[in-house]
Amino acid sequence: MTATTQAEDLVFGLTRVIDLPGLTAAGGAALGAEDIAAILGEAEKFARDLLWPHSQAADREGARLENGVVRTPESYKPAYRAWIEGGWQGLAAPAEVNGVEVGGQELPQALWMAVSEIVTSGDMSFSLCPLLSAGAIEALARFATPAQQAAWLPKLVSGEWTGTMNLTEPQAGSDLSQVRTKAEPDGTGGYRITGQKIYITWGDHDLTENTLHLILARLPDAPPGTRGISLFAAPKVLPDGRRNALRCGGLEKKMGIHASPTCVMLYEGAEAELVGEPNRGLNAMFAMMNAARLGVGVEGVAQGARALALAEAYAAERVQGGQPIARHADVARMLAEIRAITLAGRLLALEAGAALDRHRLLGDAEAEARVALLTPIVKAWCTDRGVDCASLGIQVHGGMGFVEDAGAAQVLRDARIAPIYEGTNGIQALDLVGRKLFRDGGAHMRGLLAEVKAADPRLAEAVAAMTRATDWMLERGLKDADAAQASAAAYLDAAGWTLGGWMLARAAAADARYAPLAGFYLARLLPRAASISATRAAKPKSIPCGGAKAHPVRRSRNASPATGACSVVCKSRLTLPCQSGVGNPLVNSPKLRFIATGNMCGWAFARPGRGDGPVQLGSSMAIAGRTWTVPVASAGRNCAPSGEFRPRRRAAPLPEQAAARICRRLTRPCRIDRPS
Ligand SMILES: Cc1cc2nc3c(=O)[nH]c(=O)nc-3n(C[C@H](O)[C@H](O)[C@H](O)COP(=O)(O)OP(=O)(O)OC[C@H]3O[C@@H](n4cnc5c(N)ncnc54)[C@H](O)[C@@H]3O)c2cc1C
Fold it and tell me: Entry's Pfam families (predicted)?
């Protein structure tokens, strides 16, 4: 029996597991199994002909900023043209909004997710552009005025324009209450946006003439925190043909998705319109982010699919020990793991997509609660597993996996971003436990677990373990939030493994071809759920952190014995090629003083000589001898700072409070050892 292909699995999942034909028929717009197969067949052709053959070259070529213009790889131009001509962008977009025809096909979200998986496994960098546009369409369809919808939606739905999502700022990552970008009324009903956004995916490019930026910003006198954030839209090119006062100030150099331009966006009094109500911008953005989070979960699945395709092809050709390595039991085991995990994630994502469709098409409130519960699990579990599968894919290749030619390394580099953006996986776990579980006292989770248990007796043990973990979370969380939060990621992980088993059991019940794979998952992989969900947090503060001793590279001559933190002063004035006045004045201060945790991939804080508190410089700081290079992304400004810093004097141990504050921000919990 030959293995099923990605498209076959998707058609099977949509038709036989989540019964999309039945769901759409109930909603009054029936979509038959043949239609689904035909659409996915076309998507497969698009990815096979226009993305797969060029994706490695596109990765090598990368996105480039040349004289203020962002250039994308050459192969993206015909691919994007075909994307527009095929009408792909409008697949799940509305046909009409407020009586205005906007050109979408109104097909189900689950089908869009299946198409996205195929396109993303063809080239993840390329796929991010349509993904962001889809998010913008969703937000505008729900929150924009009819006039705004008429002006923008047809262009976005056709793909003639692209959309972006501008949330992140140097000091505002997971914590959007820190957003500082300003929006000032211009006296004519419009607004002027001033500020800087970082990490903006496809913030600028050469594939379309115009881009519509959705931006979070604060109105004058807005209340502090998340209640004072509004949503604005600013086109790159204004209706009268003038360039708006916004631009890409720099491109991040990244670990992966090299061909996706990740931009520092500078808004220098850009003309914009308010979208939705003042100070309710986060609501609108979250409406768009829920679908986007499912979309990012799909990226994890897609990377698993890409890893599998490369690994299976290599394992069939590579001969060792007198036979293709695919026939060696351990390699067969790795391939089976990638295949089973990828299929489990794929079907789980489709289940969430179907719940979204049930809610939208049939107004089913239960389905809405299910999407809410499944969204953080799909986002985090599928993306974590995408990274695992990419790593296993490299292992199957042996040494060839570690060199770039085989393409397996690119999969891991690309997959690694998905657990980070659209709300880190840690934040997803907190959302699952803190919001979704506590919101209804665990009722929906218990209902879901009952369904899982009824599907197959082999799931009983995992369900029992999940039930115990749910009880523990609900009980312990009320008394000790730290303990519950420290166990949230393990809880989400266990839920993912359990629900993945549920989906494969359903697949096996629907078609015996899937029984061996389901059997493998349930026997070999599902036990992870029980062992993970038995994990209970040791009190974070009782876990010692490595400190300077465990990581000698962290130690500098003046490292604080308390935390490994040290205080350094730049040797001389830093000359930083800032391109605008938006940059923080601190950057040019000769007294710039860094307090670094010394964490290799950790944090850096800058304080002015006589300062007003720590300023986050970024999430990575390369430490090589005494040369500390702060990468562009870290500075989060439109400059490329790089300088040499020398210790000025021996640093005094940090006061306990400051040390505790820094320790709290480390990714691992730690104990503060007082210097002896
Ligand atoms: C390639 C790329 C593309 C991106 N595209 C976009 C884009 O198009 N638009 C956009 O607006 N942004 C974009 N981002 C930004 C992305 O969404 C953020 O990086 C992400 O939200 C995390 O923010 P941060 O990097 O500041 O990390 P931080 O918020 O500083 O988090 C660092 C660590 O601390 C943890 N943490 C933070 N707060 C808490 C908490 N309260 N409790 C527990 N743990 C916590 C996090 O889980 C994480 O492990 C992109 C980023 C990258 C790298």
Answer: Acyl-CoA_dh_1, Acyl-CoA_dh_C, Acyl-CoA_dh_M, Acyl-CoA_dh_N
Give me ligand 1 centre to Cα 451, in Å: 34
Range of the domain at 632: 547-665
Q: Of the residues 502, 536, 570, which one is the last residue of a structural domain?
A: 536
566 and 512 in a single domain? The answer is no
Please report the pLDDT score of residue 284 as a whole number: 87
Between 109-122 and 281-317, two packed helices, what is the crossing angle to 10 degrees?
A: 50
What is the model's pLDDT at position 657? Answer: 53
Catalytic residue among 160, 273, 422, 451: 422
Q: Is residue 45 part of a domain?
A: no
Atom of ligand 1 nearest to the CA of 203: 8
- Do 480 and 512 lie in a common domain? yes
Q: Which is the closest atom of ligand 1 to the Cα of 202?
A: 8
Does the beta carbon of 165 sit less than 6 angstroms from any atom of ligand 1? Answer: yes
Report in angstroms the alpha-carbon separations of 369 from 110, 125, 489, 523, 552: 17, 32, 21, 30, 49
- Determine which of 50-64, 144-158, 471-485 has the lowest per-residue pLDDT on average: 471-485
**Low-confidence winner among 222-236, 395-409, 416-430, 575-589 (lowest mean pLDDT):** 575-589
Q: How far is CA 182 from CA 2, 166, 237, in A?
A: 58, 13, 20
Look at residue 44 in the predicted model and tell me its pLDDT: 98
Is 619's C-beta closer than 6 angstroms to any atom of ligand 1?
yes
Q: How far is the CA of 173 from the centre of ligand 1 (A)?
A: 5
Confidence of residue 542 (pLDDT cuts 50, 70, 90): low
pLDDT of 541 reads 54
Note the pLDDT of residue 537: 59
Residues 509, 571: one domain?
no
Residue 257 counted as domain residue: no
Most confident of 395-404, 546-555, 557-566: 395-404
Tell whether 488 and 553 lie within a shared domain.
no
pLDDT at 442: 96
Confidence of residue 539 (pLDDT cuts 50, 70, 90): low
Looking at residue 119, its amino acid is V
Indicate if the pLDDT at residue 69 is higher than 80.
yes
Tell me, yes or no, whether 530 and 555 share the same domain.
no
Distance CA 529, CA 539 (A): 22
User: Is 193 strand, coil or helix?
Assistant: strand
Atom of ligand 1 nearest to the CA of 254: 1
Determine the pLDDT at residue 1. Answer: 57
**Could you tell me which residues come within 8 angstroms of residue 98 by beta carbon, excluding any fewer than 6 positions away?**
146, 149
Cβ-Cβ contacts under 8 Å for 542 (sequence gap 6 or more): 671
Ligand 1 pocket check: which of 420, 666, 670 to mutate, most ligand atoms within 8 Å of Cβ? 420
| Catalytic (active site) residue 422 | yes
- 571 CA to centre of ligand 1 in angstroms: 31
Model confidence, pTM: 0.82
Give the ligand 1 atom nearest the CA of 167: 11
For the CA atoms of 67, 73, 78, 81, the dihedral, rounded to the nearest 10 degrees, stands at -60
Total domain count for the chain? 2
467 and 499 assigned to the same domain: yes
Please check whether residue 623 lies inside any domain of the structure: yes
Residue 675 — pLDDT band, cuts 50, 70, 90? very low
426 lines ligand 1 (CB under 6 A): yes
Asked if residue 218 belongs to a domain, the reply is no
Provide the β-strand partners of residue 264. 250
Cα 315 off chain centre by:
30
Nearest residue by C-alpha to atom 37 in ligand 1: 174
What's the mean pLDDT when you consider all of the chain? 83
